[in-house]
Sequence to fold (113 residues):
Amino acid sequence: MRQIKTGQSLGLIKLLIQNVVPYFNMVTMVFAAIAAYVPISAWFIGMGFQLPFWMFGLIVMAVVITLPIAEYMIMMPSFYASWNKQVWEHDNPIKKEVEEMQAKLDRIEEKLK
Fold:
């Protein structure tokens, strides 16, 4: 698949959005959790179980703690492997220098033989 080179502007916009979105998501999640307590509590009451707000908060906190751990252990290694491949293959200024150094080393090895 062929990629389109667009320069740095689109990448900068995407990076800024990616770095700001988690803060908005945290606020949204707090409000969503508070709003979700009422119907979830009513559902549990219908099943004969009282779900206190503190217990609901503990469940939400357990999910909030578990998701980043799973992200760190499972998704990040794959993300960085893919990211490193993309960085190496597309407009990497160091790649040319490394190839030049490798060519020099190859010439030195030939002379030493």
